[in-house]
Task: inverse folding
């Protein structure tokens, strides 16, 4: 498999900074904002965005982690669980939620995340921030905040590497032969 780096550490950081400013602008600051990171890499990206928001606005932004376990081949069945991790039992009712994920592809993960959020409470709004949008949507889901659009072929995969998990920050296209 051939691999090509499309974002290095500096480019990835610039993309997250741009997303952060766009979130601030759209929400007119950080009040009433909660970030929900989709595990695993979306959670780390959400924490990075929250830290930057806190630096800029001097307000603490809660971050929750959404864990969609047993998620296989874009199918949720009765044995699947959707878990929301939060330290403080954060209430999402009437809050502005930003779901954060590393890659937007078919839209099925985001649909499951939306279902989970609506199940636990009714937020004021839900928007979506993704580091990479690679196209090939199967559902009518669009990101509100995109770090980088990277059109891909069906036989290609996007691999997001984050320092917290992988020891370095990068985005790569992996060509399957």
Result:
């Amino acid at each position: 498999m051939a691999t090509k780096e499309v974002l290095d550490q500096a480019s990835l950081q610039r993309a997250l900074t741009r997303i952060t400013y766009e979130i601030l602008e759209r929400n007119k600051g950080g009040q009433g904002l909660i970030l929900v990171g989709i595990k695993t890499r979306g959670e780390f990206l959400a924490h990075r965005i929250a830290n930057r928001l806190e630096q800029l606005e001097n307000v603490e932004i809660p971050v929750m982690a959404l864990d969609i376990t047993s998620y296989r081949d874009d199918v949720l069945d009765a044995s699947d669980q959707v878990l929301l991790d939060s330290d403080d039992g954060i209430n999402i009712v009437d809050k502005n939620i930003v779901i954060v994920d590393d890659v937007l592809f078919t839209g099925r993960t985001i649909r499951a995340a939306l279902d989970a959020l609506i199940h636990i409470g009714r937020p004021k709004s839900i928007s979506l921030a993704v580091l990479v949008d690679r196209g090939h949507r199967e559902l009518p889901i669009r990101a509100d905040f995109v770090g980088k659009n990277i059109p891909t072929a069906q036989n290609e995969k996007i691999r997001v590497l984050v320092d917290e998990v992988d020891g370095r920050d990068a985005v790569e296209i992996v060509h399957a032969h």
In short: The two ends are 6 Å apart (CA to CA). Confidence is low (pLDDT under 50) at residues 70-74. Helices lie at 9-27, 41-57, 108-120, 163-166. Residues 32-152 form a domain with the Rossmann fold fold (CATH 3.40.50.2020).
